[in-house]
Specification:
The complex is a heterodimer.
Chain A (H helix, E strand, L loop, with lengths): L1 E7 L6 H12 L4 E8 L2 H9 L14 E7 L1 H16 L3 H4 L1 H5 L6 H7 L5 E4 L3 H13 L3 E4 L6 H13 L4 E2 L5 E4 L2 E4 L6 E8 L2 H13 L4 E6 L12 H12 L5 E6 L4 H12 L5 E5 L4 H4 L4 E3 L3 H12 L25 E6 L2 H15 L3 E2 L19 E4 L3 H4 L10 H11 L4 E9 L8 H18 L5 E7 L8 H10 L3 E3 L2 H21 L1
Parallel strand pairs in A: 4-5, 5-6, 9-10, 9-11, 11-12, 12-13, 14-16, 14-17, 15-16, 17-18, 18-19
Antiparallel strand pairs in A: 1-3, 2-3, 7-8
Helix pairs in contact in A: 1-3, 7-8, 9-13, 10-11, 14-19, 16-17, 17-18
Chain B lengths: L1 H6 L3 E5 L2 H9 L3 E5 L9 H10 L3 H16 L2 E8 H4 L7 E4 L11 H14 L5 H10 L3 E4 L5 E2 L11 E7 L4 E6 L15 H25 L2 E2 H9 L10 H17 L4 H12 L6 H15 L8 E7 L2 E6 L7 E4 L4 E4 L12 E2 L3 H4 L11 H6 L4 H11 L3 E10 L5 E7 L1 H7 L4 E7 L7 E8 L2 H17 L1
Parallel strand pairs in B: 1-2, 4-5, 6-8
Antiparallel strand pairs in B: 3-7, 3-9, 7-8, 10-11, 10-14, 11-12, 13-18, 15-16, 17-18
Classes of the chains: A alpha/beta, B alpha+beta.
Chain lengths: ~525, ~475
């Protein structure tokens, strides 16, 4: 029978804790007898009498003494176990007591309350957002930065900081993402599947993921990068990270990239990585020359709809052209001769831009607050000129007012204004569903649409109102319920923005032809 | 790797729009909403400086070093000395005061009154008027106790011939000092300077100090940390409640005191004096805390607070990694309960070096140990626990020596981290007495106050500059 002792100097514990500890050590294998006490002379005498100590030790009442008796080989590990039990925080200091405590005031504090946290979604005012993002990255967390108004130098610094830590910054100004099936910020509830998306455009991402869902395929991951990521100075850092991650992701078999055309050097970097992805990559650089993009495994798509169609086909093992986008059948509204123009009133910036691109080919000059050609910028954004498409989500309109996907008042007012213009033939609308958007857009817009129609009718005109609903059956607003409500007030709906825009163009061209014959 | 994220369950911390958190919850995701407000009272530059310091390896390492030094400090009461002989860098005509530096003309009423009292006690002037003239003449140097390894409660006045506790951190050999506690009522630390006050101070110097010096010599020193730990288990938080600790101290002292050559009459007076003052141990607690926090001071890069002190006009903090610099803000008025006849209008702003106890993880930080004091400062035992728990969010660690029964013997939160204070906006809580704004009236209440955030935002800016420069 061997003995062992350990003295921890100036380490006070109450006697109850020490009795508990003693009983725990006694249960360890090979331990015959054990005691942990504060080494007051009385206590030491007791231990000597009990045979745990051969003779009194040099220790005082402020020193914690552990004394053991048992198999020589078992004693050392028992002492170590006893000491580590003493130095461990008690169970309450790690778990239960926290849950009763205050709600977290900082990201770091939140980490203590959400075990396994791996992403921070930041939507603070822009001037504070970069700091929060730096904190998140410093704490080893990925970032989705919904906030906007962040300087490009901060964006670059954040993305470099993230890359050094193998983390991603989605944003700034990233409106939407779907990670591991969870919709973030303005995102739709889409089926999970094999198509991975990296998009510099929020509504572009929503359009592609919703159409993929509508056509029976699903999304593995949808990563937003923010609108400036493919800027020359940022160099597409987030898109490249996202692309590489999806290339390495076994759950992703087709990749879709969405952006306005990047600068040539960024484009070549992105396409270079894409060509080595080892899986098909559908690229929609809005308005880019497809021949500049096409190569090996890279398939150019002219529109968001084409991108979704190609991805859905490829996901089913079909050639990308298997699903051809075409203008759905619709009835031509008889128009008065002076009704010549399309007016697009958009809540989604990318939809507006895409509409400009498509309409330009069909109808010529398209005026806008966010024009494709700088020369086509509206001098007064509040007054449309000839063919006009307006992005009502532009800062010019959202200052001091919620985004038009949430608050429809501004668009409804503009709708009435356009309907009163005798030169307007078609009004084009987008409706965006999903988390973050208005809970029932139809309820907000239908009365205004009705009123617009009545105004035109009273003036002896037929007004065509066309559009599309970007959403899914599983969205909180329910796609089919919303579509039905719009159809009931005579809105001609397509599945996608591209189709709705082409319908509008045909309407003007064909009705114009009809009108010419009259 | 980012694709590692794809293999895990997504857990989101949501900073900003709470509707995003609601959406994630409805979609079946895991999310925690952060109760976010712009950090650093909205000062963007400080917020950005802070962001770069959060979880920065060099700061984390420095804090661990500082915290370990604090934790391993063993403050031992080694003796009783005379301030002018034992305090470092003290000069002949120097008077020490509490808090950060302050000029005579800026001082609050109680501090001025106490200084005049000290001049009378020293015999530098023969009456109040001359003492006041002397104080304002510039002939006397006023410096913070903290600049001389010392602390003092309330006005914190230490003049050269006053007795002081001498505490040594036996781990590193450094000393810390504190004056003696005079008891409640009319006392120098509240600015009282009448003949009774001076007489008591003389007695303390001539009778109490030698008796205690002799007793401690016989005992060979008294370990203060275990005594404080034990008092925490007996309902003290060793700042505003020291009833148990004072009893434990007297119990330890008494047999040695009887063995000294002190006369029976003086022994009776000494015992009566200590037994009659439940705050007697406060000044020992403060000296011990000063020894512990000084051990953590001067670690480059460390964001751990090593002193919080108030002079009745300004609240100041010092930080381990920013040297001897004080970061100050106007001293807050204490929220508390007042003795009959007094109100907030009578109260001096926060005063005294006793917040060294909170700096060392006791006092308000260990409030969970002291249900008895909670009522005094207006609240329930649950509030006391909540206060201690709140402090866990702004501290570097837990002091294993100071365990809290009400928290299942978890260690007391200790080592205030300026980064966490600024990031969460949770201000360090301080249990404190309230002095009358006029000299000599004394204590008029007790309560809870909080260290001003502005001290911490300045400190974050300063630390960020030092860290980025290296």
């Amino acid at each position: 029978m061997a003995r062992a002792t350990k003295i921890i100097r100036n380490f006070y514990r109450d006697s109850v804790s020490l009795m508990q500890l003693s009983s725990t050590i006694t249960k360890l294998p090979g331990v015959e007898q054990a005691s942990a006490i504060m080494a007051s002379p009385n206590n030491v005498t007791l231990l000597v009498e009990a045979g745990l100590l051969a003779k009194p030790v040099e220790a005082g009442a402020n020193d914690l003494l552990i004394a053991l008796q048992g198999n020589a080989e078992a004693l050392e590990s028992a002492l170590t176990a006893a000491e580590s039990a003493l130095k461990q925080p008690s169970p309450s200091s790690t778990g239960n007591e926290q849950s009763r405590g205050m709600s977290p005031r900082s990201i770091e504090m939140g980490l203590g309350n959400l075990i396994g946290a791996n992403l921070v979604l930041i939507s603070t005012p822009g001037e504070y957002a970069a700091a929060e993002a730096f904190k998140a990255l410093g704490l080893g967390l990925n970032v989705m930065l919904f906030s906007d108004n962040i300087e490009i130098k901060d964006e670059i610094a954040l993305k470099r900081f993230a890359q050094e830590r193998d983390l991603i910054v989605m944003g700034p100004d990233c409106g939407t993402a779907i990670i591991n099936g969870i919709p973030l910020a303005f995102a739709n509830v889409v089926r999970r599947g094999v198509i991975g998306v990296v998009a510099a455009s929020g509504t572009g991402l929503q359009q592609v993921t919703c159409l993929v869902d509508r056509w029976g395929s699903g999304i593995s991951q949808a990563i937003g990068t923010g609108g400036h990521d493919l800027h020359r100075d940022v160099g597409g850092m987030s898109m490249l990270q996202g692309l590489k991650a999806l290339a390495a992701d076994p759950s992703t078999s087709v990749i879709v990239l969405i952006s306005k055309p990047p600068s040539p050097e960024v484009a070549s970097k992105v396409l270079g990585v894409a060509s080595g992805a080892g899986k098909p990559v559908v690229v929609n650089f809005l308005g880019a020359d497809p021949d500049q993009v096409r190569r090996g495994n890279i398939y150019p798509a002219a529109t968001l709809e084409d991108a979704a169609a190609a991805a859905a086909a490829l996901a089913n093992g079909q050639p990308p052209e298997a699903r051809r986008a075409s203008v759905p059948p619709f009835s031509i509204t008889p128009l008065a001769p002076q009704q010549r123009y399309v007016r697009g009133l958009y809540s989604g910036g990318t939809f507006c831009y895409e509409a400009s691109l498509i309409l330009k080919k069909e109808l010529g000059q398209i005026n806008s607050n966010t024009p494709v050609e700088p020369g086509d910028r509206l001098s007064d954004v509040w007054t449309s000129q000839k063919h006009t498409v307006i992005d009502l989500g532009d800062d010019l309109f959202t200052r001091g007012r919620p985004h038009p996907m949430i608050d429809h008042r501004l668009r409804n007012e503009r709708l009435i204004k356009e309907a009163s213009d005798p030169e307007v033939a078609v009004i084009l609308l987008d409706v965006v569903l999903g988390y973050g958007s208005h809970p029932d857009p139809a309820a907000e817009m239908v009365p205004a649409i009705q009123k617009a129609r009545d105004l035109a009718t009273k003036a002896g005109r037929h007004l065509a109102i066309m559009g599309f609903v970007c959403g899914t059956a599983a969205d909180p607003q329910n796609l089919s319920r919303q579509e039905t409500a719009f159809r009931e007030v005579g809105v001609t709906l397509a599945e996608s923005n591209a189709q709705a825009v082409r319908m509008a163009a045909s309407m003007v061209l064909e009705a114009g032809a009809v009108g010419g014959r009259l | 790797m980012i694709q590692a994220l794809f293999q895990e369950k997504l857990h989101v911390l949501n900073v900003g729009l709470s509707s995003f958190a609601d959406s994630i919850t409805r979609a079946g995701g895991s999310v925690l909403q952060i109760e976010w407000a712009p950090p650093a009272q909205g000062q963007q530059e400080v917020g950005r400086a802070l962001a770069r310091l959060v979880n920065l390896l060099s700061v984390e390492t420095a804090n661990q070093t500082a915290f370990d030094a604090y934790q391993s400090a063993q403050p031992v009461l080694k003796g009783v000395g005379t301030a002018g002989q034992v305090l470092p860098n003290i000069t002949e005509r120097m008077i020490l005061h509490s808090g950060p530096p302050i000029a005579w003309k800026e001082m609050c009423g109680p501090m001025k009154g106490a200084i005049v009292g000290a001049i009378l006690y020293e015999g530098w002037a023969e009456n109040l008027a001359r003492a006041e003239a002397m104080a304002s003449s510039g002939d006397i140097t006023f410096e913070p106790c903290h600049h001389h390894n010392a602390v003092g409660p309330m006005a914190g006045i230490i003049s050269p011939s006053m007795p002081v506790w001498m505490v040594t951190n036996t781990t590193n050999g450094h000393q810390a000092f504190c004056n003696f506690n005079e008891g409640l009522g009319k006392a120098l630390r509240f600015g009282a300077n009448g003949p009774d006050v001076i007489t008591r101070l003389k007695w303390m110097g001539q009778v109490l100090a030698p008796a205690l010096r002799a007793s401690i010599e016989l005992l060979g020193g008294i370990d203060l940390k275990p005594m404080m730990a034990q008092a925490l288990h007996m309902g003290d938080e060793v700042h505003n409640r020291n009833a148990a600790a004072s009893s434990l101290f007297l119990k330890r002292l008494i047999s040695a005191l009887l063995k000294t050559r002190t006369s029976a009459a003086d022994i009776a007076a000494v015992v009566e004096f200590i037994a009659g003052n439940d705050h007697f141990f406060l000044n020992l607690s403060m000296a011990a805390c000063k020894a512990m926090t000084d051990a953590a001071h001067g670690v480059p890069g460390s964001s751990m607070v090593t002193a919080m002190a108030r002079n009745g006009v300004e609240f100041g903090i010092r930080v381990s990694g920013t040297g001897s610099r004080w970061f100050t803000a106007p001293a807050p008025v204490v929220d508390g309960l007042f003795f009959p006849g007094y109100s907030t209008a009578d109260a001096a702003p926060d005063l005294g070096d006793s917040a060294i106890t909170e700096t060392a993880g006791v006092g308000g930080f260990a409030m969970a140990a002291s249900p008895a004091i909670v009522k005094f400062v207006g609240g329930t035992p649950q509030d006391a626990i909540d206060n201690t728990m709140a402090m866990t969010h702004i501290t570097v660690g837990r002091n294993n020596a100071f365990t809290l029964p009400a928290l299942n013997f978890a260690g007391s939160p200790a080592g205030i981290d300026i980064r966490k204070v600024v990031d969460t906006g949770i201000q360090p809580i301080i249990n404190t007495g309230i002095a009358h704004r006029e000299a000599g009236v004394g204590q008029i209440g007790a309560g809870i106050t909080r260290a001003p955030l502005a001290c911490f935002t300045q400190a974050v800016s300063a630390l960020a500059k030092l860290v980025s420069a290296t």
